[in-house]
Description:
Blueprint: H1 6-17, H2 25-38, H3 44-51, H4 57-63, H5 67-81, H6 89-102, H7 122-138, H8 149-163, H9 170-179, H10 189-196, H11 199-205, H12 219-238, H13 245-276, H14 279-287
Helix pairs in contact: 1-2, 1-4, 1-5, 2-5, 4-6, 5-6, 7-8, 7-12, 7-13, 8-9, 8-11, 8-12, 9-11, 12-13
Amino acid sequence: xxxxxxxxxxxxxxxxxxxxxxxxxxxxxxxxxxxxxxxxxxxxxxxxxxxxxxxxxxxxxxxxxxxxxxxxxxxxxxxxxxxxxxxxxxxxxxxxxxxxxxxxxxxxxxxxxxxxxxxxxxxxxxxxxxxxxxxxxxxxxxxxxxxxxxxxxxxxxxxxxxxxxxxxxxxxxxxxxxxxxxxxxxxxxxxxxxxxxxxxxxxxxxxxxxxxxxxxxxxxxxxxxxxxxxxxxxxxxxxxxxxxxxxxxxxxxxxxxxxxxxxxxxxxxxxxxxxxxxxxxxxxxxxxx
Length: 289
């Protein structure tokens, strides 16, 4: 990478961490990871400039030398904004501003069953980051790490429904997941999760349809399933929950195929994220779901 890109990349990462007005420990750790990768010996001046409001996203984006650096800047900001949980409205606005400044086009919807689906953009990024998170959980050395995957997937459905103005209950979310074949890995998992997480995640996990298929294992499979689930939920709620079971299953299969082509491009991000994940922090985040 061009050494001239180091400073603007680090500054953009710092701005991403401060996008909602505060930088927590998870976001700071993500920024530190960027700094380490850049190999910059001294970032104190950059930190002062960011804190003082002296650096603008548009100016920093204009200093980046090529498309690779611009993509690195955006993906780094995405990871930071999602480091402490799903990006909030202030962080989503920052990501949109950054995307525009970098000249990165929003990915078009992969599939639309009917017209009227919401435009691509921050929601696509949110789904991608949640898919990366579940993939990263799969490769944690902690044997209990994958118990968080299903609650995260179901919370994703719930949050997407909320973004579409849908007032959901637990059963609606579970029904959609069951339709797509997502279920509990083993009889004892529910009891374990009930003891570790609460709130929405507890309600979502309890009582899934008997005989549901086994939770997929492996980073690539979990990534693909989460990615597909998120995009199916987006289509489902965008269409006013009017899609048939066959429509939903067909969409799920199609988005899983799309995810297989995306996975090689994000594999390094998944591995990096796994190296910084703390299972207890993830579970604590689910308690507040």
